[in-house]
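Quick start: what a row looks like.
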Amino acid sequence: MHTRSVDPAALERVTDAAGRLERELAKAIIGQQRVIREILIAFVAGGHCLLRGVPGLAKTLLIKTLADCVHLKFNRIQFTPDLMPSDIVGAEVIEEDRATGKRTIRFMHGPIFANIILADEINRTPPKTQAALLEAMQEYQVTVNGVRFPLERPLFVLATQNPIEQEGTYPLPEAQLDRFMFNVVIEYPTAEEERRILSMTTSTQHAQVSAVATGEEIEQLHALVREIPAAENVVDYAARLVRTTRPGADAPDFVEKWVRWGAGPRAGQSLLLGAKAKALLDGRL
């Protein structure tokens, strides 16, 4: 990759913002450097993340800390079996003017109208409610009774999923999974990291993070990632990699045997955008 078409001044500004974000996250999150980097890659590329891990591995803390590091609106949605789509996108309500008795219909915005959304335990709600996120994640809008309501940019959806509790959970439909750029798996910390976690979280001292990036800077990051050119051989490799996952002439034997449906074109888009964002964060432009 190279940056002949990228403004050097803009590149310096946005890479500095990305570096500030990574440093602030490291203040509150001990270890998990790989997880932090993968989430930042998706954040910089304009994608969404699904975080999978057993309870107690700071999935929610990581997302809330990211929200504290930026001047953006944050909302948390706790997914439960009785959650309705209107609890996410909002609903129309009838209001009556006490003076005139006139009734009007007003749209009450749901928690999806924010910049960073924590969809906590997304697999605890039925697919009908999970699907309420589809339009928002892909088209940055919601539709209620035929009326479209645009969502503010940037929009970053991070969903958490507990892999060990199956009772009362619903598998995510393929269409929902396809909207996430990364499926990030959080592992247990190392012995030294766990010792530091115990020491820090059981004392009166708490890590303080500051908001170090604005929504405008995040949008500039998104635009810059797309401006980074990719060499033809990189594009060809991404296309071949995606096509190899699909049963057919291009697939290896184990794919033919074990895979029914391969990755779609959106997977190739995520590969390229993720590669560009990683190169940007690594300073390899």
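That is the whole record. The longest strand covers residues 90-96. The CA atoms of residues 134 and 192 lie 40 Å apart.
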